[in-house]
Amino acid sequence: GAVVSQHPSRVICKSGTSVKIECRSLDFQATTMFWYRQFPKQSLMLMATSNEGSKATYEQGVEKDKFLINHASLTLSTLTVTSAHPEDSSFYICSASLGFGQPQHFGDGTRLSIL
Amino acid sequence: AQTVTQSQPEMSVQEAETVTLSCTYDTSESDYYLFWYKQPPSRQMILVIRQEAYKQQNATENRFSVNFQKAAKSFSLKISDSQLGDAAMYFCAYRVPTNFGNEKLTFGTGTRLTIIP
User: Hey, are the CB atoms on A32 and B47 less than 8 Å from each other?
Assistant: First the structure.
């Protein structure tokens, strides 16, 4: 149980393109999902907390207009990287929790490469 | 702000031997959770073990166990009978309950574990 699916696993696109990444909880409902970014050989950095039916909460230094988050249902959150540039190239991972006090379960991640 | 420190960027262990990965954290909270996650080359984050701060008993999961020292704010991971499949990046993580369902994880910088055949 507690499977989180993330799609796509790999994206390569030209600079200026907007890219959408989906995060789905397959066998449970998640009122809250989390989006992380991971640079090579570094730790996960929380970008934002996605709340179903309300606005996402962004961490300090993360541009909300650059990284659009939508959590329209209890099983789906999307992260859209708008007008992506090479510096946005990174590994993006989402996670979801079963509820209060429960561990977060992670998707398989999306490797984004902007040319 | 809460911080998590992993002082060992890299560790190696002979197959079938035991290895301990260190983690310390800084917090003023009394109620929190601690986790160890494993990230193999596939980059998937896999939960290894979890510890509730209010529990004095150290958590164990098969070959994985922790040494939780609350007063010292230390949370080390012991891997017994190391196997080749244990090779991965290991992250220590801390979480304090905030609003319901809105519980952020703070990760350490990771320890890369190599298993020597």
Answer: no
